[in-house]
Design a protein that fits this description.
The complex is a heterodimer of chains A (617) and B (75). Chain A is 54% helix and 19% strand. The longest helix of chain A is centred in the C-terminal third of the chain and has 36 residues, at 549-584. Chain B has a four-stranded antiparallel β-sheet with strand order 2-3-1-4. The longest helix of chain B is centred in the N-terminal third of the chain and has 12 residues, at 14-25. In chain B, a hairpin with a 4-residue loop joins β2 and β3 (43-48). Chain B has one domain (2-74): 2-Layer Sandwich (Alpha-Beta Plaits). The chains are: A alpha+beta (617), B alpha+beta (75). Chains A and B meet through α1, α3, α5, α7 and α8 of A and α1 of B.
Chain lengths: 617, 75
């Protein structure tokens, strides 16, 4: 019975609205007060039923909810036989709740779209070898699944047989299909554009990359900032306090009308809902545009940003360097290139890849006694020669003599923005290579936009030589640029900015080798193509490593933070105006109070909804 | 101890959260520290001791408040 009444809340609101209309029409047209009064009484009782049930349930779990306040107010109106007010108040309360639900669903729609992309079913291989459709929750790690053309990949897995091309837009934001064959990794939530594949389930449910993204966004929208926690604590005591206040007013003034008006006016609607609404709409907008924001604390810090610190390689530059120039010294160059390639083959440094590509086919020899010199390079033994590969500092450490020409060459290459890879064999300089990385297209304009949005300092930190760093910095118009920095130097620098200069600092990096800086900065922004590390260590993730989303992200958090403040102002302002008017004016009564109260809730929701459409101009 | 994720119909009033939290507090066998009601995603997450309380009892406590349970996952 109770549940039935609650379920038909919307119908009840409609019927009671019609009854109220009938009541007033009959009064104005026929002047029949009987129909007027009875319609209103029925409307009041109908409307009160669901509210009273909610109030009772709340009281049973020791919560004084808004329903409790409204129920007492309506009962009070009954006692003084003001059926007009009791009917209108219950109707407005129910109708308001209906509108709130509709508009709230709108603000949540962006995130819902994301979660609805989650796969629901899978074709699982049963014991008899046949594939049967099962719910995705029933898939375990190690199951063999069949994915047909047009279907969603249900879990993260590895292709066992077959081939096809997959649209991975849901993970990377990149909609150009990626071809997959035996041994390729596939991700839950991506779509098989053509072909048929069988996959082995590696990670299922919330452990998949897509599951993690959803979990993160869902948690983000419900994470609370300090301000919200305060409002929560406040509202827990606020409603009972209003009840007590109304009771005291009634005792002293014996004016029931005034007491119940206070009950209705005291309902804390807009204040409690205002901030979460801005939050969810802002995070939803981000999710739609490839910016994952981890909660309202992040939004608040990010919006007050002073300084943005960038990693160079892979962030401001494409991260795919190639050898631009090479200079040879002395003889036996072919052999040296063979040694160099043998050593670089074992390294995962981005420069090593460029060097290997440049050398191409060569004779590889076994490498022993490899020693990685941090911030310098590599020293190793090949064919009984001591080979050093690295920068100028390493050469000095190895006591390699650099003649005048070599020094000039080095200076020239550095000035032209090259990173240096110098090779020496047994302490003798042999090869000098200049490796260059291209600046990402569009980065310069994006940085300008960031500046316009109020970022005071744009700083670049890099492990590269100062020459390269200065050149990139000049080209991009950065405020500061520091080279020759190891990952720990970068994090120290970030710490210095925060602790000594008192700045609010964001660090933008690729999320893999910069994780200490990402964690230390007030806001860690990872350029991740949906990699786990990036998702976990950072506060903001730019999907698909798309740098151009950064200005949108900053503009969005600023708009969201502003929106929250607006909503708090609206909510507090309305309560103050209502309280003032109940004390100092004649026109205030319960119905108007309820109308203003419900209207203010809708206003803050609609205000929050504007964020869904936010676009950086 | 098992952990449950309960998807509810859309929650619209923040006091719904207080009510649901209150109802969960009244149940034995729920790890109160883990119980979390999220407003925007309309989900309840909690750890519970299946020897002392069943998932049906938890669902019923929430349903009694008038909130429909759409989907429950227990791990």
């Amino acid at each position: 019975m109770q549940r039935h009444i609650l379920k038909s809340k919307n119908k009840i609101a409609l019927i009671s609205g019609i009854l109220i209309a009938v009541a007033f029409l009959s009064k104005w047209i026929t002047g029949n007060t009987n129909v007027f009064v009875w319609s209103l009484v029925v409307a009041s009782i109908l409307g009160l039923a669901p509210i009273a049930i909610q109030a009772y349930q709340a009281l049973r779990v020791k919560v004084v909810s808004i329903d409790v306040l409204v129920t007492i107010a309506v009962l009070g109106a009954f006692v003084i036989q003001n059926f007009e007010e009791s009917a209108i108040v219950t109707f407005l309360f129910l109708f308001g709740a209906y509108l709130e639900q509709r508009t709230l669903n709108q603000t949540r729609s962006a995130i819902k779209e994301l979660t609805e992309m989650a796969p629901e079913s899978a074709l699982k291989q049963m014991e008899n070898g046949e594939f049967e459709e099962v719910e995705v929750d029933d898939v375990d790690v190690g199951d063999v699944l069949l994915v047909k053309t047009g279907a969603k990949v249900p879990v993260d897995g590895t292709v066992l047989t077959g081939e096809g091309s997959i649209n991975e837009a849901s993970i990377t934001g990149e909609s150009i299909p990626v071809s997959k064959e035996k041994g390729s990794n596939v991700f839950a939530g991506t779509i098989l554009d053509n072909g048929t594949i069988q996959i082995l389930a590696d990670r299922v449910g919330e452990d998949t990359t897509f599951g993690k993204i959803i979990e993160l966004v869902e948690e983000a929208q419900d994470s609370k900032s300090e301000a919200e926690r305060f409002i929560d604590r406040f509202s827990k005591w606020y409603t009972p306090a209003v009840l007590v206040l109304a009771f005291i007013v009634w005792i002293f003034s014996k004016d029931i009308e005034l007491a119940i008006t206070i009950l209705v006016l005291g309902c804390p609607g807009a204040l409690v809902i205002g901030v979460p609404v801005s939050n969810v709409a802002g995070i939803g907008n981000g999710a739609r545009h490839g910016v994952l924001l981890k909660g309202s604390e992040v939004i608040s810090d990010f919006s007050k940003l002073d300084t943005m610190v960038f990693d160079k390689t892979g962030t401001l530059t494409v991260g795919n360097p190639s050898v631009a120039e090479k200079i040879y010294y002395g003889e036996n160059i072919e052999e040296t290139l063979g040694y160099l390639a043998s050593i670089e083959r074992e390294s995962d440094h981005p420069l090593a890849k460029a060097v290997l590509e440049e050398i191409g086919e060569t004779v590889f020899s076994p490498v022993t006694d490899t020693e990685v010199i941090k911030g310098g390079g590599i020293v190793a033994r090949v064919n009984n020669h001591r080979i050093a590969v690295g920068n100028v500092a390493l050469m000095e450490k190895e006591n390699v003599q650099l003649n005048e020409k070599a020094k000039e060459d080095i200076e020239g290459l550095e000035k032209a923005g090259n990173s240096l890879v110098i090779t020496s064999v047994d302490g003798e300089l042999k090869v000098l290579m200049g490796v260059k990385d291209q600046i990402r297209p569009g980065v310069k304009e994006d940085l300008q936009r960031l500046k316009k949005l109020g970022v005071k300092n744009l700083v670049m930190l890099s492990g590269d030589n100062q020459g390269t760093v200065d050149l990139v910095s000049k080209e991009l118009g950065l405020t500061e640029a520091h080279g020759n920095m190891l990952p720990e130097h970068k994090s120290e620098y970030v710490k210095m900015l925060i602790e000594e200069k008192g700045q609010i600092v964001a660090f933008v990096g690729d999320g893999v080798n910069d994780s200490p800086s990402l964690a230390l900065a007030n806001i860690g922004i990872a350029m991740g193509s949906g990699t786990d590390v990036a998702i976990e260590t950072s506060d903001v993730v730019l999907m698909n490593s798309d740098f151009s989303r950064l200005p949108h992200a900053l503009g969005l958090v600023k708009a969201t933070a502003r929106n929250m403040v607006e909503n708090i102002f609206i909510a507090v302002g309305v309560v103050l105006v209502l309280l003032a008017s109940v004390l100092f004016s004649e026109w205030m009564n319960m119905s108007i109070g309820m109308l203003v109260h419900e209207a203010s809730i809708l206003v803050v929701i609609l205000n929050g909804m504007r964020l869904l459409k936010y676009k950086l101009r | 101890m098992k952990s449950a994720t309960i998807q509810l119909e859309t929650l619209t009033c923040p006091s719904c959260m207080q009510k649901i939290e209150g109802a969960l507090k009244g149940l034995d066998g729920i790890d109160q520290d883990t119980a979390k009601v999220s407003f925007n995603s309309s989900k309840v997450k909690l750890d519970f001791d299946e020897d002392r309380v069943s998932i049906e009892e938890i669902e019923n406590a929430i349903k009694k408040l008038g909130y429909d349970v759409l989907k429950t996952r227990v791990k």
